[in-house]
Amino acid sequence: MTGRGRPSRTTVYRRLDQALAELNQRLGGLPTPHEAREIWDDIWHQEAHHSTALEGNTLVLREVRTLLDQGRAVGAKPLREYNEVRGYADAAQWVYGQALEPDIWHNGDLITLNEVRRIHHAAMTPVWDVAPHHDATEREGPGSFREHDIQPFAEGMTPPSWPLVPAQMEQWVADVRTLGKQIESAADLDRPLPEELARIHAEFERIHPFIDGNGRTGRLALNLILVRLGHPPIIIMKRQRTTYLSALRRADIGDYGALGELIARAMEENLNRFILPNLAGPARLVPLAALVDREFTLDALRQAAQRGRLNAVHGPDGVWRSTRKSVEAYRAAKHRRPAQGHPEEVP
């Protein structure tokens, strides 16, 4: 543990390795979207919300759920923002579908250049239809590499000149292929897997291959690599934006530890959604992510815990934990309240 009680990076990596071994050896691998629909659906809603919010989208999670599940745009946000979420969700749905075909990749081909373009096209077309980038030419639309230079970022990162983008993206895909071959052959990696993933993600963002939508496309590409490795997709939460950007800046100078730790924690949280419901007894404390079901989202359980309506504990690692038994008690109390004549808004 660190001085503040937060688990060390080494501990986080070790826990992740144990969770991955548990998933593969005890549970037979990652359940497909058909086998664990409620969990995958909640991850889908959460990712579409948080990943677009990182880029400034203002839709709240309730609005995202209504848009994706019912096709209704509630609230009074610009059409561009609804289309940002819809496009991202469409691209993420295709990415998640690759988990149905865990053996689709071979020879280390975890992702291809055409698939990167496909992700960008799916994510950006809906928003481009109503608010195209003001500097884009006809050849720089969704799915096409930029033909503009991008000014250096304030943090110091300088994307390559646009004529270099195709070659550098080919090299990026080759680097991912090399990593895939190493994993496939169980070879020793140069650094822990989360830091290899951090290196790949940071390099994509450095290249900045598109005129717009690079952050969203980079996170979706990372999740495609993860699901093809048999791991769940990750979610970088909007509250982590400052930490995420700081970790990317450190990765730009070759320090992948902070970004690797962020990725590892996100991997572990979503792994717990799949693993712990299968292993935990009704009275065992588990992270709230493992207790999500069709009625209660992660945000709803977290709000109930914070308000004292759900019996839960807030660990020194910042994670809320409860039990299936406590959730069932909360569910029963929630459904009793209207019958007693005391209607109350419940998260």
UniProtKB/TrEMBL annotation:
Residues 111-268 form the Fido domain. PROSITE patterns: FIDO (PS51459). SUPFAM superfamilies: Fic-like. InterPro entries: Fido (IPR003812), Fido-like_dom_sf (IPR036597), Fido_containing (IPR040198). Pfam families: Fic. PANTHER family: FIDO DOMAIN-CONTAINING PROTEIN, FIDO DOMAIN-CONTAINING PROTEIN DDB_G0283145. This is Fic family protein. It comes from Sphaerimonospora cavernae. The lineage of its organism: Bacteria, Bacillati, Actinomycetota, Actinomycetes, Streptosporangiales.
